[in-house]
Batch of 2 targets.
Target 1
Amino acid sequence: MIPILLIIVLFPAIFLGAMLLSRKHGRAIALASAVVGLALVLFLFFTVVTTGNTAITETYGYISSLGINFDLRTTTASLVLLLMSSVIILAAALGGNVSREREWVASMLLILFQLGANGLFLSGNFFLFFIFWDIGVIAPFFMINVLGSANRKTASYKFIVYEIFASALLLFGILLIYSYTPTHTLNMAQAAMAYSSMPAGIQQSIFLLLFVAFMINMPIFPLHSWLPDAHSEASTQGSMVLSGILTKFGGFGMLLIFTTMPIAHSYSTYIAALSAVSAFYAAFLIMRQSDIKRIVAHTTIVEMSVIMFAISTMTALGSAGALYGMLAHGISVAMMFLAAGAIEHTFRERNIGNLRGISDAAKATSYIFLLGIFAITGLPLTAGFIADILMFLGALSAFGLYGIVPLFSLVLMGAFMYFVINKSFFANKERTAAEDHIDITQKAGYSILALALFIFGILPFILLGLFNVII
Amino acid sequence: MLPYMSGNEFLVYLIAGPLFLLIVSGIISMFHKSERLSFVFTSALLAVMSVAAFYLATLGTSFSFLGILQANSFSGLLFGALAFGLLLVEILSYGRTVYLQEFNMLLSFVAFGVFMVTFAYSLIAILVGLESVILSTAFMILASGKKYLEPAVKLFLLGAIATAIFTFALALLLPWDPSAALTPAVITGSRFVLGLSLVLFAGALSIEAAGFPFNFWVPDVYEGSPGNVTALLAGINKKVGLIAMMQILAVVFIGYTATLGASLPADLLFIIATFTMFFGNLAALVQSNVKRLFAYSSISQAGYILVGLAAAEHIATLQGNTGIQAAIFYIIAHMFMIIGAFAIIFWLESKNINTLNDYSGLSGRNMFVAVSLSILMLSMAGVPPLVGFAGKFLLFSSAVSGGEALLAFIGIINSFISIYYYARVMNQMFLRKEGKAMQIDKNIAIVVCICLAFVIIVGIYPQILLGPATSAASALASYNPFTLG
């Protein structure tokens, strides 16, 4: 039996080492790492599908004095999100750096982030979860701080302050889990069995600490204000992984605590209300934006709030929908950021008022952006449609007709987005094709993401077969 | 002939012998011209002592010698680590110190002081050790040049005050612990005098360990001294103070909590730790001189170690005390982090790069320095997978399981605050700016690489250090002639 999980977690380290040796081939090494990552994840996926066993676990000795092992495990959620992150990282490595600036640093950070994401989704105990969480935060910090655009310093500050605050809360929650489990374990499966026997106050503290930490990361109103700055100032690759993968860390954590901690029941209604408010708040915020990257960044808040709403239904359908929603949103938002990055690179312009009809000049980019809007608003044949159906079916069964309310935030968001794309992409048409500079690798990035969106939209049973039991 | 010395005892002479040679050679070298010879001899002896001490730590035996000293894994591990730290300081200073021979002689006195404190089985030994460390450091500052008079005098005076308070505290303790041995004091009768003695000990040791009310000298002296001595002050001196604090408060006064139910030691350490962390971190937020910023940062780091000591007091049994184990781990981890950071600062100050503004665009001038300093700072801020995170995890988890959850929370909030000023430095370093490329000196690069290797390797696999730290903590517990509850 090959230690497939360990290989998936640790292989980026080899590419990082290769990176240090060669400063010239940064881009090629990052691409190789992304391809190898996707291949390994597909192999894992193939193994899971053919054996029907979604819960693969691997344990290696790590810090024996503390009883902490190097536990790795797969769950439905981790498989789906791992697949998503591999696809996004491949697209980012391929087309994300269209201007070819500071390629070595950019590729290095991308592989570092890949290490964090793979480790986080596969970690079987909270110690590893925290370690990979922070790796996944530090890499984007430098993607903003070193590679970002004009306001990158302020944005990266805001980002790191929010995220480190989140990880401080997470760490304290983890320490509480460590000292209140009878065997002093951080293993997620063992902790899940121990929660119900802890004192109620401790359970509440753990739940709230972890909830707020994940809430900052997702993000949910009122702790969302780092996101628009960070996502709009990061490099294109940075925006793709931030929006596509980093926000899913929080979603993954939410699924984890809502499915294992019995105390979640007493909070779920309030949390549902909060996420509905958050979705509408962000949908209205979008209408005040004029920067195309900020608009895409705000759609992330809307979508993640709706996903949080689905998780807080605490039904099997809702959780499955949330997971599918994260998959669909991750891929589509990465696609839109890739397109937005190309627009910025081609026209040196991010303000929607000044774009003035780019659809003739940049055909591929415009239509890909349109496809992204289709996907996040849940048009049939895209993965977003499946996600919306599952989420709102779950919400209907949990909250009755009130469960449908957040759907209108998606409608609001969609209405404004169609308005934007019509006015600044498909009307006026003052731009000419001579301005289009994007090359084949960028288009390859588009097609990978678009293909993934359609595959998961038209053939949802590929993944839905996994969803008999969530987590 | 009968064997008159066991193998283990011989090992102690393998440490004490080079130490003696070091002192002798230091004195001889003052009358000798060759700097290189002095450097080679000093570093070789330090390396031999360090290796022998690490070997002693792995043996797991425990025996006393000369009546006031005791060799076991605790002394072996800490002396080995600190002797290695001294070696790093020696490498840093080579070729950059005006009076290297005098410097080396004083360094040998520091090594002697470290030896006395880590191997101490008696409070007298600790007193002698602390005194010789702090006084020789004061003169080391002077040996670096005439312009360093002010920090030297400050350090000298504070060392004198610390010694006076320490002696008085010792005098108050003697009725309960007439042998002045490093064993839990047998507590009967008046608690008041013993409590006073405890507070005075905490005060005297806070001066060296940069605990809150007595650490206002730290930023001035750290900033005023040359970078290599600052590395010594932050890496060795402060650690010696913390080790002494661990031995005295967590061993001698452990019975105070257990027999009388008084939580004075734990509460006292709680207050000192809280204020030290907040003072260091909040003051560091507004600094514009990087060396001063790191001085405040190292104050806050001492606060984290005090969290472990407070937890150790609260746990109140010596065997299996996770607080002591975490403190030992973090003392060694922080020594490497801070020596690495001050090595870089030492090199930059020779290029006249001192303030935060001077640091801007450093990554364009020397990428290696910018990246290494960032990694060391991230480690100090407690970002995984670096050693600072492993240490803080141990400290705070020992605090939570020891019943000091509030202190753990304060500590976590403080590490969160600290990320802000570390991010400020990183922000400046990675600004895009044109500048002349700088070539790093070989001896600085060696020290930085060693520290980085430690920070990354032990961070990824903390068991390397945690195993020895655990056995060191249990060796400290075995000083105990009788068991407490």
Target 2
Amino acid sequence: MQSFNHTLNCVGGLHARPAGVIVNAAKQFSSDILIRKLSAEGAKEADAKRLISLMSLGARRGETITFYINGPDESMAAEKLQALCREMVG
Amino acid sequence: MNSIAKPSLFRGIGIGETAVYGKIRFIGEKKPAPERKSRGAAAEKREFDAALTQARAETSALYRKTLAAAGKEAASIFEIHEMLLCDPDFIDLVHSGISKGLSAPDAVREAGESLAGIFEGLEDEYLSARAADMRDISSRVCSIITGGEDEREGDGSPEIIVCRDLTPGDTVKLDTERVAGFVTFAGSVNSHTAILARAMDIPALIRAEEFGPELDGAPAILDAQAASLSVNPTPEEMLKLAESLQRREAERSRLRTLAALPAVTKSGRRIALYANIGSTAEAEAAYRAGAEGIGLFRSEFLFIGRDDLPGEEEQFEAYRDVASLFADRAGPVVIRTLDIGADKSLPALRLDAEENPALGMRGIRLCLSRPELFRTQIRAILRASAYGKTAIMLPMITCSDEIARTKRIISEEKNRLRFEEVAFDESIGLGIMIETPAAAIMAHELARECDFFSVGTNDLFQYTLAADRQNHRLAYLEEGGVEPVMRLIKLASEGIHSAGEDKWLGICGEMAADVKLTETLLAAGADELSVSPPYLSRIKDRVRGID
């Protein structure tokens, strides 16, 4: 199991375009990839390979999401997704 | 109750700047498709799967159509639609509806509504706007199954489309020749509909005060700037609109004819007319205005207003988008490397304060002192060059050593890309800005090191006159300052043109956009003029009037 945090700095939060980028990247791996968002109302989880699921997290700029990656290619997936998060802006 | 002909005014949020006249055309809630019983889960699933495949194909066709008509940003919605159409959450929900005994269209509608409901419940305005996308894709799949394409007939007169919320799919289908504008009671400035409307130059009023379908067919003026819809307008209002329409139409048709014409003087001298842009969005405006290329792509927009630095991927994507947009135009996309200094600093660079930033570490001087920053940008530009003719332009050059050092970096990065088997244009051009008098004076020697030049007249003026143009007490130097700058440009031109047949000189500062100076600049030897998109047609008009 791999996990890391990412604080969103995209202007529109995890809106359609960045969510689409994550989904496309996540689909390349066979590991299960879960994204969890903690907020005052409690935790919400989404499957990183599903756009609708990810968008309905409603993650906004400044909020922190946590990736949980579990499976045979988890370290590669973690590396790739972390790089993607770092580059994701705008 | 209001009588039909009574003037009434409805307010909302205006998108665009224009005012238009048209007859109101109500698009009510979509007619529900005829009820249909399930013909068995297996048959309904097959029908749904087939419709899904067709819907994906239609969506990707819409993507290409919008990309060509309105650019990448507007088109990206259809990429998202395609992903939504492939999303297992959507498909599973429809399948489970069918298993429960619903017909395929009913199951699609239910799934679409239930997912749209989730988005609507989100606090974020941008994300809640995605509900319309969810409804759009489900109604697309439905209408494929039921075979019902809603035809909108009309008498051919301009129409103002009124509805609750236009889906992006609807917006693209609108015939802009006949649709004068649209009014929605819902929507937001961030909705894709609003983005598309802007990109396609259709005025719109969103979140308008609600009115009923009894106004269908009534004449109205939609004024995006006033953010209002005037139904049954008074004669005075009509007269005012007619005058402004006439002015706009006359100017528009003149400019339209100009966009397709070359910038050529009466004696047949061809001038390259390029655009200055500071963002990818501006590139689309430049393209539509008929720019033959981009003479100055300021890369600073990627760096400013943030605490970190843009990575290679992010830069590459921005450069690539513009390069591929202009791939079918004659001229290159000239990307100027980061032009930043202590006067317009970036938090991420932590630059030292300088006593005199205008004469300090800025432009190429800064980039050469920060090789990692510079190399990232060079690599991003090189990679973008595989998608359309691209060139690199260096700001603030004073001596040939600066060009030589940059060329070493470029050649090393090219080697790395070759090794990594990443595509780029081997013959990518290299040019420099002429901003310092030294560069103008030494242009002949500098021309041995590069392919082209572009005069940044604002800086050349400031450095030639030793006068800060922001300092209003020095305004008296303005008028007399033009001549010395012109002489430097002429000197540079002679030096450049005697160094090689294919070397060219452009002008990309404010002077290039001043119609009073166009003739003098051409006489001084400018081969290219680069101006912001709104000036393109005016300058072209001027060039075509010169002997």
